[in-house]
Specification:
Length: 505
């Protein structure tokens, strides 16, 4: 009977980071993944001459105050993965404004103030606040997040968090800025976090957005390089990583997780294997853990805590291989956010995200602006992306599903053509991934790759913690502290590993 120190269910960035850290610290780790490759949404796939990046547009931060910097040094990421600095934050365009926002705070303030001269005070307060929140979050001791509860006693220590911990992004912007187009410019990349500014936690937004103003990065060759490297760290430290095996049950005894059952992903009637460990880490959707992996009696406390929580939005992406670099068509920007003219204020954004795909705000990421390593030099790769929901795809036959994806792709191509003339003629290959695709390949409930929605009631200390209500069971994913996105998942895995290492056996 095999016995490990740690068994990890799933190889998204949370599970990989936790596994890499724990194996490096001497723990015997077994990671079980149902897919054929590691990474979850941090993966790539090959079509013709194109390596198609599934999830990474840009990674925030990596400045001295970014926890990821410490993590990447500790795990040897900087020595084994090439990170490419991006040229700017993004271009925003609608029928009224066309502006390029730098990834440097001072320069961004200058550009935004020149475009919106009457809003200088609000612009400066916006940056002062998001950076203030980010700095305070970075100062919180990882071993005791509950020190947040003492902040009312020591308000001078964490003044920004204390003031804004229950505030939404939308309410904050409404309180400091009058011009609605300026609010939209600042909200351009909202889809990287959430779908509605008026329900988005200002704290979580600031932690991520503040990092982008220290620069954004892309992993040369695609995010699969990072996932493969972290899996190799586990193997190099006497751990095991097995693919195409699906965990079907977390074995418990006296309300304590002691092992898992698993079987071949594509052979669900085949032999079931059992393995045991002192610690189980679920890098999996928490609703799936509660409803499927745990026995009903054991899971009830977890269900009671999570059944009313709101899941996040998802994304639809059109992955495109171009016959030549798109930058040769005159496009000068890595990320271009294209907002429909019907979106006149931030309150229109949630309506837009649930509306017709012909009007949903989209982003086009042009990887030809950097030496991405995704294509031969004479070709390029790009992606069009927007908010999506599993409900957009319910009750469709396979043929209807296929036809709807094709219809949306053509709509997006027409919209992109208006911004980059000639781009349609350069399309060589394309493929559409929906919320249903994300659900299929990552097993995320509702295809919600961000986990639970980052509302004030579900962010920070109010979010599910890395240590579960069941002894020996831990969580490391977008569904838990601190949340979704590449950075959120990496930090979740790191915090989980630290929690396990503090565990007393």
């Amino acid at each position: 009977m095999d016995k490990y120190d740690v068994i990890i269910i799933g190889s998204g960035l949370g599970g990989l980071t936790a596994g890499a850290k724990l194996s490096k610290e001497g723990k015997r780790v077994l990671l079980i993944e149902q897919h054929i490759i590691p990474g979850g949404c941090a993966t790539t796939f090959k079509r013709k001459d194109y390596i198609m990046e599934v999830g990474l547009h840009e990674m925030d931060g990596l400045d001295k105050s970014d926890i990821k910097t410490k993590i990447f040094h500790d795990l040897g990421v900087f020595d084994n993965i090439k990170l490419l600095k991006l040229p700017e934050f993004y271009r925003f365009t609608n029928s009224r404004v066309d502006i390029v926002v730098p990834d440097n705070t001072a320069k961004a303030i200058q550009v935004l103030t020149e475009e919106f001269p009457g809003e200088e005070k609000g612009i400066k307060k916006y940056f002062r606040t998001i950076h203030g929140i980010r700095k305070e979050i970075k100062r919180l001791p990882r071993e005791n997040w509950k020190l947040l509860l003492l902040m009312p006693i020591f308000p001078a220590v964490f003044p920004y968090i204390l003031r804004y911990q229950s505030k939404t992004l939308g309410k904050f912007l409404d309180s400091i800025i009058n011009n609605e187009d300026l609010k939209l410019v600042l909200l351009a990349n909202l889809q990287y976090y959430h779908d509605n500014p008026h329900t988005m936690s200002l704290l979580y937004y600031s932690a991520g957005q503040g990092g982008y103003y220290h620069g954004g990065y892309f992993i040369k060759g695609g995010s699969q390089k990072l996932s493969d490297y972290l899996a190799q760290v586990i193997k190099n430290n006497n751990g095991e990583v097995i693919f195409q095996n699906l965990v079907t049950k977390i074995i418990t005894e006296n309300n304590k997780a002691i092992g898992v059952e698993y079987q071949g992903t594509f052979n669900k009637t085949g032999e079931t294997n059992k393995v045991f460990a002192n610690t189980i880490i679920a890098n999996a959707a928490i609703p799936d853990v509660a409803n499927t992996l745990l026995a009903p009696g054991v899971s009830q406390k977890l269900k009671n805590k999570t059944e009313k929580l709101e899941t996040s939005c998802s994304l639809i992406s059109v992955y495109i291989g171009f016959k030549r670099p798109v930058k040769e068509l005159g496009n000068k920007h890595y990320s271009t956010f294209i907002f429909d003219e019907s979106v006149k204020s931030q309150k229109d954004m949630i309506t837009n995200h649930h509306g017709d795909f012909s009007k949903r705000n989209i982003v086009f990421v042009d990887y030809s602006q950097i030496d991405s390593g995704l294509t031969p030099p004479d070709k390029s790769f790009g992606v069009i992306c927007t908010v999506d929901y599993l409900s957009d795809w319910e009750n469709l036959s396979p043929e209807e599903y296929k036809n709807k994806k094709e219809e949306i792709a053509q709509i997006f191509f027409e919209r992109l053509e208006k911004v980059i003339p000639g781009v349609k003629d350069e399309i060589d290959y394309y493929e559409v991934g929906t919320s249903k695709t994300i659900q299929r390949f990552t097993l995320n409930t509702d295809g919600a790759q961000y986990g639970y929605a980052q509302t004030p009631k579900q962010a920070g200390l109010k979010r599910i913690q890395n240590k579960s209500l069941i002894e020996n069971l831990y969580f490391a994913s977008a569904w838990t502290m601190p949340g979704g996105g590449f950075t959120g998942a990496i930090l979740s895995g790191w915090f989980c590993a630290e929690e396990v290492l503090r565990k007393k056996h």
